[in-house]
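Schema walk-through. Below, the input block comes first and the output block second. Nothing else is stored per chain. Lengths vary across the set, and this one has 94 residues.
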Amino acid sequence: MIRLVPNYTAQIKRSETVTFTFDGTPVQGHRGETLVSALMRAGHLNLREAPNDSAPRGAFCCMGLCQECAVVVQGQVVEACRTDVSADLVVERA
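--- output ---
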C-alpha cells in the first residue's frame, strides 16, 4: 500500500493517562479527551439502552446534538461526547 502523506503518528504527544471506571470496569483515557473517545477506544460501544425497546445505543453525532451517548457520571446524566476524562471518574450506563 502506498502512503500519500507522511505518517506522523509517532510524533503525537498525548496528555497523561488517567484511569476511570465504566460500569465497574477500569478504563484508561488521556486527561482532557472526551469520555466517548476513551470508551470507544476501550471497546465500549453500548453506552445505554433505548427506553422503548431496550436496544443498545452508543455515540452517533459526537458533538452534543443527539444525546445518544448519555451516561451517568457521579449520579448525573451527561453526554459522554461533552464530558472530559478525569482520574477516578465513576461512569455508568444511563
